[in-house]
Every structure is written in structure tokens, then in C-alpha cells.
Please model this.
Amino acid sequence: MTVVVAGAGLAGLRVAEELRKAGYDGELMLVGAEPTPPYDRPPLSKEVLQGRRSPAAIRLRDDAFFADHGITLRLGSRVTAVHPQRKSIVLAAGETIGYDRLVIATGLRPRTLPGTESVPGVHTLRSLDDCLALRRRLDGADSAIVVGAGFVGCEVAASLRVCGLRVHLVEQQQAPLAGVLGETLGELVARWHLKAGVDLRCGCGVAELKQSDRKLRVTLTDGAELAADVVVVGIGSVPEVSWLAGSGVEVGDGVLCDERGRTSVTDVWAVGDVAAWRGPGGRHRRTEHWTNAGEHARVVARDILGLPPDEPAVPYFWSDQYGLRLQVFGDVRASAKVRVEEDDGRRFLATCAVDGRLTAVVAAGMAGKATRLRRRIGEPVGDG
Model:
């Protein structure tokens, strides 16, 4: 049997690792669009952007690992089509590769501000090349505008402040991370940026961006005008699924899968950021977090080999900003009742409950307490 993984990022690598761990000894190939071997993306917005870690330091595995585990790497090879009837994929150069089992792990591409794609000094951050290009632009820069206060935007804003730049952070919602954590917790995160000297502009977006007098000038939807040397756009990403057109693989907001990662086409699975797995109630949902890639990979590897699934883990993700680690255990739902259990003005611990049961724990700088509370997720909570 030959297993081909389309995508050589974290999720794709984890699939290969889990297959070998579970005893698979057949042909195994990772096909990646980027020329770089699998690397860790979270440091791009933090240590690598700040110049504290080199590109080599974020490689997930060295060359010897792939040789020792019999994993073939095809890098710099974008997949442009899949033909399930012939069980083959097509690369950008025209080469066809056959498979017995295919795993889709092509990830995301960042959204851009319409009309700004070719404007010098306007950047997105998804890949190592994106990060290195942004770092080069920072040479001689003293100011930046970050559009979008999701995880990438918040982390980039924090990193640019660490680098000494003046930073404007623009967010359409009423608080940073409000779309993920809600406004109550988002306001706690906002305090970090304000204390660090970030000019935080919430409740508005970008109306116009133009280059003038060697500066990038941004007009906001509330009429305010900002100017800076560099603009970083962090307004979300879209799944890389265009290459699946006409394949029969059903897509929506990502590749639609069942609860074990199986797609609508036999012998094709999907994992990681690109995959929308079916959850409780039949709703498909994508989860763009580092730990999710590993969970998907373990389930899919076992399914490919006909093994029963492991017990699902409690969802977990984190973000590092201003020397604090923000940790989220469980599922923060829009309908949740949020209770801030502890708050010293910088560090905090909060719980989220739906229908009287604990659904999530959110903490910053309180890892021990958050870990202990995590064990209670799913249990009833009191009103006190």
C-alpha cells in the first residue's frame, strides 16, 4: 500500500509519524508546496519575527528522521489536481503520482485586503517566507499597522512592540480575540496591548490603504487616518481546496469529513486546518490550532490501518503575548456564561459554562490552576 499525504506541514508530518508508530511499513510520501522541510509555524509570529530563533531552529524533524522512517519528501511541489477514479494526484509541473490512500493536509492561505496584494510594505504572515520578507521590511522601520486582532494579529503586534516599533492594532470587533473568546475575555487581553503602548482601535476596519510619501496611509471606517512604514494583515485565512475542483471531494468551509476524517471520496481523508470534521449534531467545523493537527493525525492514521480510534482529548490551544501564555482548554462557545475566577490586572483565570456544565477553562499566567480545572470539563458547575 502507498499512502500519499498532500501537504508537508505539521498535520501532514504527524500523519506520517502516526502511521509509522502504529506499525505501517508501506510506501509513504509527503508532498509539500513549500521548498522547506516541515517546520513549526507558531514561532513565526513570535521568536522568528523577533529574530530570537533562526529558520533552522524551527524545523520539526531533521533529514535523518525521514531517511530512518522511510518517508519520501517531495518539496516545492504543489498539488494541482486529484483523480480519485485513477487514484492519482497531479503536481504543478505535470507529474502524476499514484496512491492507494490519500490524506489531504494542504492547510490555509491568508486573506488579503482587496487591492493591496502588490503594494510594497503590506504583508501577511503564514509561511516562513512570509516571515522573512516581513523581517526584511522591518529594517529601518519605526511604525506598523496591524489589521486584525485575532491570534496572529495580536502576536505580531506584541512582537513588533518588543522590536521597538510604534504599533497601531485595528480590529472590527469590540475587543481583541472577541471572535474566539468573546468580549469579556477579549477585554482582558486588550489590557496587555494597551499597557505595552499599542494604539488599539476596536470597532472599525480599513476603508482605504494607499502609499504616499514613502509611508503607508490607512483610512479607517470611523474616519481616522493612520500612517506607518509597514502594514501586517491578519484577518483570517481560507482553506487551500481549489485543487479539489471536479474531484468529487465535497468542500464547504474546508474539506467536509466525518468524525474520523473520511471525505466524501473513498480512500481519501483530510486533517488539520483544511479539514472540517463532523461534530456533535452533525455540524462540520474547522479548528485552526496546533494541537488539533496531532489529534486529527492520530485518528486518521488508525482509521487508514483499520484500528479503533483513541479516546478523544480535550481541545487545547495557546498564544504567547508579552511574556504570558494564554491557554484555552475545551470549547469556548458564543452562548457560554463566562466567569472570571481570578484577575490581578495581568494574569487571569476564567471558566465558561453552557447549560450548567463547564465547557472551557481560559487562563493567562496561571497554568497550574488551569490544568487542575481542565479535569472538570463536562462536569456540572454551581451558580456561586
User: Anything to note?
Assistant: The two ends are 57 Å apart (CA to CA). The longest helix spans residues 290-304.
